Amino acid sequence: MKKVLAMLLVTSMAISLAACGSSSSSTSTTTETSEDSEESSESTGETYKAALLLNGTLGDKSFYDSANEGLTTLEEELGSDVFTFKVEQMGGEASDESKWEPTLLDYCDSGEWDVIIIGTWQMGDALANAAEQYPDQKFMYFDEQYDFDENGNYGNIYNILYKQNEVSYLVGAAAAMLTTTEGIDGIDASTKLIGLIGGMDNAVINDFIVGYTQGATDIDPEIEIVTSFVGDFTDSAKGKELALAQFNSGVDVAFNVAGNAGLGLIEAAAETGHYAFGVDSDQAALLSDYADYIPTSALKNVGNSLILAIKADMEGTLEYGITAIMGFAEGGVELVKDDHYEEMLPQEIRDTLDELEQQIIDGEIVVDTTIEIE
Questions:
Q1: pLDDT of residue 5
Q2: Over the stretch 181-196, which tens digit does the pLDDT of each residue have?
Q3: How far is CA 86 from CA 46, 83, 109, 112, 159, in A?
Q4: I need a labelling partner for 294 at 20 to 30 A (CA). Which of 18, 156, 170, 266 fits?
Q5: What pLDDT was estimated at residue 116?
Q6: For residues 8 and 302, which has the higher predicted lDDT (pLDDT)?
């Protein structure tokens, strides 16, 4: 079978690691529609079935959990007779990598799924192979740029990217203001040093970094940023080790962009009495024991973007063969602004962040990016 061969060789958004990008010839800033679409699942009365294949595991309190929660919300909203899904946790360790593509091809080979959903740069080659071998199978690929020019546009991939640089700009600005604010426990206002723990050195993580750096230095050009890479998105012990080294060097505020590995940063912040900004999910809410050390979190609304895309696909209006990129204006990213956020950050900082976000939406601030789509 085909799998053996391979083994050898956003309507508006509902309220609500990491890649190596290349250019794409087909783009969209919102979910686009197509006149020549398939008849919707609702009109045929058939149950729409999605498979979410994770090259990792649930429980990361971050990226994968967000995707799963979005599909869970959609199933609860529509009912399992209209929409249902299955999650396949393929594991994120090096020893698991050999089974990722065969598992993807198994799902394709079954012919059972209306759409197969995968994400991250590590699945790019496997997706290209699957899309070519199974032209009638539809795929959604999130948080990594699919190169339609290089890999072939087979018309069966809907690619979703997020403007993590925009929300990271706000985190950088918040960190720069927080680290020089007098009277906050755990903050030495005389220093101008902030940190960041990244999972891997690739385009999406670097997109976080450039936004974070720009936001911080726009607030204060003298701010210095200490950046460390774990080398993966799973090793929380190493993430903690790197974070402790940063805090011991004078950092008192840092940003987690390392997925599960970044949980080590949050633990280190709690142990040392410093602060860590969360990522991808509301980590203060999910990690309540550590909430006092998490001022807020930068969200990629992965789950909501999948809800939007699947609803459009069920209606027969989703256009495949394009890349949709979603920022503040499109509801693809946001900074958590809730009661906890208001308790953690002074009013002056919050007011400034509101102003900066609106300036980004209005185009008055253009945030640097490592993701270029033509």
A1: 31
A2: 999 999 999 999 999 9
A3: 17, 11, 16, 11, 20
A4: 18
A5: 98
A6: 302
Distance between alpha carbon 207 and the CA centroid of its chain, in Å?
11
User: Could you tell me the pLDDT band of residue 39, with boundaries at 50, 70 and 90?
Assistant: very low
Q: Please name which of 221, 218, 338, 363 lies closest in space to residue 278, comparing C-alpha atoms.
A: 338
Question: Using CA atoms, how far apart are residues 245 and 204, in angstroms rounded to an integer?
Answer: 24
Residue 353, CA atoms < 13 Å, CB-side half-sphere = 29
Residue type, 311: K
pLDDT of residue 168: 98
Mean pLDDT (whole number) for 251-261? 94
User: Tokens in use for 236?
Assistant: 């929380």
pTM of the model: 0.78
